[in-house]
Amino acid sequence: MPAHKSLRDLYLIIEKRLVFLQKSILRILSDHKQKFISLGISHWKTPIDIRGKFNFSADAIDAILEEAKLLGVKSLFVVSTCNRAQFFAYHHNAYILKELFVKHTKASAEEFEKHHFTTTEDEAVHQLFELCCGLDSMMLGDLQIVNQIKEATKYANQKDMLDGYSHRLMQYVLQAYKDVRTHTEINEGPASVAHGAVLFIKERFKSLAEKKIVLFGTGEIGETTVKNLQKHNYKEMVLVNRTRAKAEALANTIGVRVAAIENLEEELKTTDIFIVATGATEPTVGPEYFESTNKKMLLIDLSVPRNIDTSVDALKELELIDMDQLNNIQDETLARRRKNIPKARTIINLHKNEFYDWVLMRELSPTIQSLRDKLHSFTAVELEQQKFRLTPEELDKAEKLASSVVNKIANQATEFIKLKYRQSDDVVKMVEEMFKLKP
Length: 439
What we know:
By secondary structure, the protein is an alpha/beta fold.
C-alpha cells in the first residue's frame, strides 16, 4: 500500500475521532437540566425556496426518532408541513437537536443558522399553545396544523419517544384548542392557503364565467381549493392526479371532469388558471408543459417545496404565484379573526397556568408525599403508645381524628410550599431538613 494512502486513511480516522470527541465534550459541558425545547424554521422568517429544503419525509422522521433515542433524547415529536419544519423535545441539549435537524434535510448548516429559531421552557410551551390554536399559522386561525401535530405526537408515542411531560402538555394544549375554537371566532369563515388562492383569483379576474381551471393534485389542499372554487361561476374545471381514482372520487362529488396525467400538457393549451398542489419533493411541472401554449395563464403553486419550476415564470404569457405571495392577501375574514386574538390568548394563558400547576405538583410530589408519610408516622407512634389505654372504639376515633389533622396540616403545608417554590426552590430543602425527610 502506498505511504500516502495509508496516511490519508489514518488522517480520516483521526478526523472522525476528533469530531466524535468534540461532540462528546459538547454533550458533557452542556446544561444537564432537562427542558422543553422547540427549534426549526417557519414561514415567519424563512422564504419558500429555503423552506423547501427543510421538508422531512416519513423515512427521515423515522431516522430522526431512532437516532434521537440513541443520543439519549427521551421525548421528541417532529412537525413537518408546507410552512414549517419543527422539533418539540424534552431534553437538556439543544446542540444535539440542531445537528440532528440539519442532518436530515437538504439544507446546509449555514442556512439553518440564518433562518432557524430556538426557544426553551415557557417560550417553547407558549409557542406550542399558539401554534395549535391557530395564532402562529400562515393564515390566522387556520387549525389544520392541529391534526398534523396530533399525528406527530401519536407517532412519537408509538416509537416510545413521548414522555409524561410532553404527553400531559399536549392534553392541556388540545383543551385550549377546543376552548378557543368554541368560545372565539378565530376560525370563523374561510381563511386558509386554499382560501387565499381563491381570493387572489377573484382579485385578478372580474369574472370566472369564461375561465377554464385545471387543478393538479387532489390531496387535502387541492380538495379544499376545489371546494372553495365551487362557490364561483367558472366555465370548466378539470382535475388531474397521479392516482386517477382519487381525482375521480372528488370529481364525482362536485360534478367536474377528470383528465389523465398523460394528457395534462394538452389540457393546458386551453387553460386560464392552473393550480398545482401535488405535494411532491421536487418540481413536477417545468417549461416543457407550456411549449404549445400561446395564451395568458395564471399559475398558482400551493406546494412546499415548489412543484412548479421557477424557470416557468420567465415565459412571457405565464404568471407564477407561490404561497408566500398568497400570504399577503387580506380580507374581511382575517380582519374579524384578528379581533379575537386577545380572547384566544386569555384562554391559552388559563390552560398554560393549569399545566404549570401540574408541573409544579410533579416536581414537589416526592417532597409532599414524604412530608405526609412523616406526619402520619408521628401519629402512628403516639397511637401505638396509647392503644392499650383505649377501647377499640376510642382507638378507631383517635386514628380518624389524627388522620384528619395530618391531612389538614399537610394541605396547608402543600399550599405554602407551592407558593414559596415559585419564588425559590430553597423551600424544599428547608422542609426536608426540618422534618428529616431524606435518609
